[in-house]
Every structure is written in C-alpha cells, then in structure tokens.
Amino acid sequence: MVTVEQVLDLLADKLIQDANVDTSMVRQNQKTIRNGLISIGRANSEQLILFEKDVKANAEDFLNEQEQDDNTMQSFQSIVDTLNIEEDFVINLVDFTIGFTPSDGEGEGNTPPLLNSIILHNLSTEVDYTVTNIFVNQTDGVIGNPINLSQFMNLQQLTQDIDIGLAEEYLDTTIFELLPTITGRQQRIINFFNEFQILAGNSPDFQIDNGYVGDGFDSLIYSEDHDISAAQDTPEGIQEEESFITRLIDDSNSNNEAYTLEGLRNTLNSYLTDIDEVLPPDGDERPEYKNESSGYLKFRNLNQGIIIRNTENKFLKGLNPETQDYLETGFTVTMWVKFLDKSSQGTLFNFGNPFREDNPIGFTLETYVLKRDDVVGVDGYNNALADNTWGEIFQDDSELGLTYDNANPTEGFFSNDNAERFIRLVVKDGDGRLRGSHVGMPFLDRRQGLPEFNSSDNFTENISNLPIEERIPYDHTFGLMTNTRVPINYSEWYFICATFNPFIQEDSSHSDTGIYGDYKNNSDFWKGNVTIDNLYTHHSTYGNKCKVEIMSKTDLLRARGFKV
User: Fold this and answer.
1) The domain containing residue 219 runs over which residues?
2) How many domains does the chain have?
3) What is each CA distance from 400 to 49, 208, 415, 479, in whole angstroms?
C-alpha cells in the first residue's frame, strides 16, 4: 500500500530536479521561526527548520474535515487512500507555472511560486488524479500552502584562495598512500602451505602390519583428540582453539562437512590421476637364450681334467716348449667355469709348470680361495700381522686401522660371504721371471714379483747373477688380494679370458718413476685401460703382460639382449 510519505518524497524529488527551481525558490519555501512563530520564506541569515518527515513539513497539504469544500477540494490523505495503489506509481507534473502573490512585507518568502498543475498517475488503472488544489491551496489570491521545497538546504559553491608559499612552508606536502601491501601469487601459495601444516595437526600413528593398518589405531579416539568437529560437538573434550581440520567426512559436523582432510584428498585426486594410475607391468619381450651345445664336460674336482695332445705333430701349434713361441706371439686362454663350492682351488688350465724347481717352463691359469678366518702367515711387514686373519686385515673399516701402502681397503672384502675367490695367470717369461696378473690397488702398490702363500717369490731367476737375498722377490703376501676376484655364486657360469701380451711395456711401467708414481695404485692402468696421460682406452700398451678378465653368463646374455 502506498503511503502519503512516499508520495511526498516523490513530489519533492520531481520539484527539485526541475530546471525552473533555483536557490532563491528553495529559500522562498523554506520555514523558519520568526517572532516565535513558524513562518514560510527564510532570509539567508535566519535559522532553517527541518522536519523528520515530509508529512510534518507539509502539514498544509492536509485539510481537516471542516475546511474541505465538497465540490472542489478533497484531502490529500483521502486521495491517497482512494488510489489504493499496491504497485508502483509516478507523479506527473503536467504543467509548471510560477506565479506571485501580494507581499506581506516579511523576508524573502513573501512572493513564493505557485504550481499550476500536479497530477498523480496510477500505473495499475491508468487513471489520473488532479491534486493541484491540495498542494497549491490558493483562495482569493492568498497563498495558504507553499510548494514542497522546505526540506531542501541551500547548497552554495564556495572557494577560498590559498597562499601556496605559506602552505608549502607550514604543511608537509609529501603524501603517502596508506594502501595495503598486495601479496604476490607465490607468497600466497607459500602462506597456504604454511597454514595447512599448522591446521592439519599431527598425522595418525598408524600401526602398519604387512602393509595394512593394524588394530592398534582407533579412528574414533584420534578424532576426539584432533578434529574441530569433535571439539564443537563435545565441549568436555579437546578445546576448539587447540583442534585441527577434521580428518574424515563421516566424523564432520554441519560446520565442517565441506572442510575435511578426506574431502581435500578427494579433490587432489582429480589433479593427480596420471601419477596415481597403476599401469600393468611391462612385458619382457626379450627372447630366451637356448644353449647351442648339447652339454659340457664336468670335472668333479679341480686338478682333475683332460690332457690335450696332437697325434699328428709332437706339439700343439704355438705351444712348443723348446722354442717357446708363445712368449713372442702371446696367447689367450678362454673357458666357461662354474664354481660349486668355496673351498676348491687349483689349476684351471696349464702348459708345463712355471713353479717347478727343475727346468720351470710354461704358464698356468689357477684359482684360489682366501677365507675370512684364516690367518695370513708370512706377510710383507716383517710378519707383524702373521697371526691376524684375512678378515681382520681386509674387511672394510678394519679395527686394525691399517693404511698399508696408500689407504684402507674399501672393496667390501668378506662382506657377502666368509670367503673370497680369485683367479690369476702366471707365466714363466723368457728372461727367467715369473709374471702374474696381479694389479695395483688403492691399499697396495703393484710389485714386480709374484705374490705367494706364506713365502716370497723364490722362483724368479738370478738374472743379474745376484745372490738370492738380493733378487727382486714379491715381498708382500697381501698381493694375493689384488688378483681378479670372482663372486661366490654356486649357480652362475663365468666366462674366463686370460691373456699374455709380450708387447706390453710392463718393465717400463715399473722403472719409469713418473709413470709408476702416478699409477702404482690404479688397477685400471695395470689392466691396460688407462694411458700415461690418464685417459681411458681399450689398449694403452702399459701395465701387466698377464691379464685375467671374467664375465658372468647372466651379464653376457643381458648385454646380448636375451631374457635372464
């Protein structure tokens, strides 16, 4: 229902926006107290009276029943009641004419303007209601009802000149904008994760048993001691300001249904589908190797074997003990071997016997085993360690703290088993010296003589007619640990390749102090794979004349692209 106050507000808005209304007209219709009475028309020096409501300010708009002219007038209240407007409406000023009345000689308000026509238009019924007489209320040229402008104040544009020199002298003209600091995107991300770490709390102490959460974890107890939902629903439990994000959706209350760790996890899953996807294992499309031979010879023990001979000639080609051509041309011995225990040791292949005292000749490829708990016996430190075991001396982080020639052993000796197996090639050279495949290691320099068990090298001939005590023996039993090492694996086949190359500059590798000083502990150099310029190569012409290399069948098949 439309109220009188609403109609008066709309009428005042229409009037003040009209181009004919100016400051003077507003003042002519304002009210002031003059001679103790409320008077219409106010001088600029007089106090303005403002009313809380337009109904009070424009009381002249409302005639009581005794003042009504039934033929020409009707109270404004009755017209509004008659309109019975429930929808919106407009006030249409069809005509606006300014008129003047005789002066009463008081103030500027003695000639107020008149409104010639005011019409209310009902949008619902499209009916017009003329209310001019109510608002103007002119009788015999006497104004009894001013127009509704008394509630507007005079607004004047004023300017004041400022002495710029004085202003700059007394005022601080440096202006600082008190704007909040804008947080960058990176810092917002950092702040989010920091806040999450605080509000997530400590993770549950799950008791994992065979990959599953055991009976030791109670979800309900954790929720009571952790979740903010439990703190809000159970005041006697954890305090709300000491609680954390609710863990499970089922444990959340109405305040936290959308704010749980489980819900957050479900949201994150949609961003991480690619890494959560469990792909089927890759199929191994490599072919399986099939042995081409029908079988192999099996020797029950080492030092048992077969004798190879040539029935057409006295000697095998290249193995003439009289001419010893192999010392000039070199040779290679290859074989497949499977070691079925960690105790057997002896000859794998030999030609002649380079160790015999009477006419030593030939070469031998042999294997030996050093056990962790066996004592060393004769060593190169004046037998100071003769009563210590191989394990005490050569295991990593040995309690003896020995540095030997350069450093402690760190090769992992005896770490996987209580025994270590080695293979070596020994050749009786043409100059009467026993040459072996032992190399230099970080813990031991490479020496010219041959390492032996419990003895020095007594097989090197007296090349310079020196007494035996002045020969160049291998003065260190520890050199047995520097030969080619074979893993202890009873099910694995190993391909052994032993070579003797007479063109290798072994003697120069020792006699040249510059070369020997730089590479005496470098095993790759003594295997011929490092040049004197410290570059890796397949053949450097320096190092040992004797060399033994091995490869397991598993590694060989894998390298050839077969399924292992």
Assistant:
1) 189-276
2) 2
3) 111, 42, 17, 18
